[in-house]
Write a structure and sequence with these properties.
- The chain has 79 residues and is an alpha+beta fold.
- The protein has one domain.
- The chain contains two helices and three strands; from the N terminus they run H-E-E-H-E.
- It has a three-stranded antiparallel β-sheet with strand order 2-1-3, with helices on both faces.
- It is globular and about 30 Å long.
- About 6% of the residues have low confidence.
């Protein structure tokens, strides 16, 4: 899923970073359809204008660290 979008990001990463560094890109196919300050902002924008699951949200940073993201959640414990 999103192989085409991810391959596009990797192939164009240096140019994209020069233009959008620090942003979260919304990529569909082989084009950037939006850039946002946060992943949440990008996600909300996608919901308003595109079908959920039709675009990839990608942090725009240099290097391979941009290829993964870790999301931590807290366990809720009831006593």
């Amino acid at each position: 899923m999103f192989k085409q979008e991810f391959d596009y990001f990797i192939a164009n990463q240096s140019d994209l970073v020069a233009k959008y560094r620090g942003k979260f890109l919304v990529i569909k196919g082989q084009s950037v359809v939006g850039s946002y300050s946060s992943a949440l902002e990008a996600y909300i924008a996608i919901q308003e204008s595109r079908e959920i699951g039709s675009c990839m949200i990608q942090p725009c940073e240099p290097g391979t660290a941009a290829y993964t993201i870790t999301i931590a959640t807290a366990n809720l414990v009831q006593f």
